[in-house]
């Protein structure tokens, strides 16, 4: 019997998941929690085979909870089950130790099969999530900005003009422009807004 803990802040979602999973003869829900911290406490107290973890909950996020559960108990597998599939959400969850990432539009049979696969130690990913991870792996590494270029761009992001930045950093306006032009080249952009946006996408700001 595969023992499962459900972590989701919506009681209706937990009730629906419990009903779907317990229709399967080899699956049983042994506990529920409505927040990340409660999920950690419940998982460590009950030692289930699988934790189905929502990502965004008011009482504490699922990524932090996943990290804490996998750090404290290697025998518990965490499967993320969420409506969110942004690149950032997926990468954070996998880096935290999640053994899989599923979306809430999965069918009951897909969910049950995913739980079984995770219990066997397999990594389970929704097709769109797998595509995202492949794309991330293939993505070239972010460009390296110097400390000064990063500093200048951070002030640009705050809305300061070149003159304002020069006064803040005690450098000339011409030097500010030079730093920005080098930054534009490294980020392959042509204006300030694109530079800030691209830098944020690469995690440089």
Overview of the molecule:
The chain is of the alpha/beta class. It has two domains: 137 residues, Rossmann fold, CATH 3.40.50; 55 residues, Arc Repressor Mutant, subunit A (Orthogonal Bundle). 54% of the residues lie in helices and 14% in strands. The protein has a six-stranded parallel beta sheet, sandwiched between helices. Strand 4, helix 4 and strand 5 form a beta-alpha-beta unit. Helix 7 packs across helix 9 and helix 7 crosses helix 10. The chain starts with a strand and ends with a helix.
**What's the mean pLDDT score?**
92
Low-confidence stretches: none
**What is the H/E order?**
EHEHEHEHEHEHHHHH
Question: How many structurally independent domains?
Answer: 2
Distance between the termini: 47 Å
Number of extended strands: 6
CATH C-level of the largest domain: Alpha Beta
Strand portion: 5-15%
The second-level CATH architecture of the largest domain is: 3-Layer(aba) Sandwich
Taken from the alpha-carbon principal axes, the silhouette is elongated
Task: Provide the helix percentage.
Answer: 40-55%
Give the class from helix and strand content and strand pairing: alpha/beta
At the fourth level of CATH, the homologous superfamily of the largest domain is Response regulator
Number of helices: 10
Rounded to an integer, what's the Rg over CA atoms?
Answer: 22 Å
Query: How would a crystallographer describe the biggest sheet?
Result: 6 strands, parallel
Strand order of the largest sheet: 2-1-3-4-5-6
**Assembly classification:** single chain
CATH topology of the largest domain: Rossmann fold
């Amino acid at each position: 019997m595969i023992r499962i803990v459900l972590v989701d802040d919506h009681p209706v979602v937990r009730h629906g998941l419990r009903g779907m999973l317990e229709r399967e003869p080899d699956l049983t829900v042994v506990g529920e929690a409505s927040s990340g911290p409660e999920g950690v406490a419940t998982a460590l107290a009950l030692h289930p085979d699988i934790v189905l973890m929502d990502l965004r909950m008011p009482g504490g996020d699922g990524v932090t909870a996943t990290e804490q559960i996998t750090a404290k108990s290697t025998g518990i597998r965490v499967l993320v089950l969420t409506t969110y599939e942004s690149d950032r959400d997926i990468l954070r969850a996998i880096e935290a130790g999640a053994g899989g990432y599923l979306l809430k539009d999965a069918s009951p049979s897909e969910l049950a099969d995913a739980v079984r696969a995770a219990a066997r130690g397999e990594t389970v990913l929704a097709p769109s999530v797998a595509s995202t991870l492949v794309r991330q792996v293939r993505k070239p590494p972010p460009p390296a900005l110097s400390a000064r270029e990063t500093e200048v761009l951070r002030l640009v992001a705050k809305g300061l003009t070149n003159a304002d930045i020069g006064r803040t950093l005690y450098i000339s306006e011409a030097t500010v422009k030079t730093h920005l032009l080098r930054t534009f080249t490294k980020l392959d952009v042509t204006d300030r807004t694109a530079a800030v946006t691209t830098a944020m996408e690469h995690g440089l700001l």
